[in-house]
Structure formats: structure tokens, C-alpha cells
UniProtKB/TrEMBL annotation:
<dbReference type="InterPro" id="IPR032710">
    <property type="entry name" value="NTF2-like_dom_sf"/>
</dbReference>
<protein>
    <recommendedName>
        <fullName>SnoaL-like domain-containing protein</fullName>
    </recommendedName>
</protein>
<dbReference type="Pfam" id="PF13474">
    <property type="entry name" value="SnoaL_3"/>
</dbReference>
<dbReference type="InterPro" id="IPR037401">
    <property type="entry name" value="SnoaL-like"/>
</dbReference>
<feature type="domain" description="SnoaL-like">
    <location>
        <begin position="11"/>
        <end position="130"/>
    </location>
</feature>
Amino acid sequence: MSHEDSAIQLRTLLERYVAAFIAGDMNSVKALWDPDASDRTYIGAELERPIFGAPALDAYYDELATVFVVTEGKVGDVAVRKVGGLAYVVTHIDCVFKTGTQKFAVRLRATILSRKRDGEWRFLHAHDSIQWKLES
């Protein structure tokens, strides 16, 4: 598979991730992770500590659905670096979400490690942060 084909597939993976959040479909979000990776990890912008392991990550997504409602999302530029059977993906995602009565628009910067399983790229590790600027 060419690098370009992999980049297109990985962008599609990210777009499916965002669409599942907007739909409030946490089962679809969880299904984008490699089912064989019981040691998956996630570091969310809002989290104090990383999440380790499939059960903890599944519980996180279930809880997240009760707190955050994503109303808009768009994947930005995607950079892909393949190393063996793995792909490092760097992107940003512009999203709007609500928590309680408050609405927020943020740009998430995301770094994702993926591998192919059954012909599809799946998440192994993800780390996102919120982009911000210091006022001069």
C-alpha cells in the first residue's frame, strides 16, 4: 500500500472518529481502537493522568458521553509517518462541544499511533491537547 493510500485511510479513520462523537455513538468511537491492543493508551486534553488499558478507556468513553456533547468537528491537515507496520499521525481537529449549559470551540492537536488490523487502520495510542496562544 502506498503512503498516499495510507494517509487517505488514516484521514478517514479520524473523520469517522469525529462523526461518531457528533452522533454521540461511543460504541463506534470505541470500535476504532485496535481490538487486539489491550494495552492501549489515551492522554486527553482534559485529563490529569493518562488512561491505560481497554477496560479503563471504554469506561472513560462511557462517562464522557454523559458530560460532553460534541456538536461540530472538522479534521484539519493530516501528516502521516509510517514506521514498519505502524503509522504516526499528527493532525488538528476543530470542534465545538457543550458541557452543561456552556459551549466551547477548541482546536485539539492530536498525535495518534495506529496499526492495521484486518485491512483497517486502528488506534493504539492517542494524545490530544488544546492549542492556545500566549498574549504578548
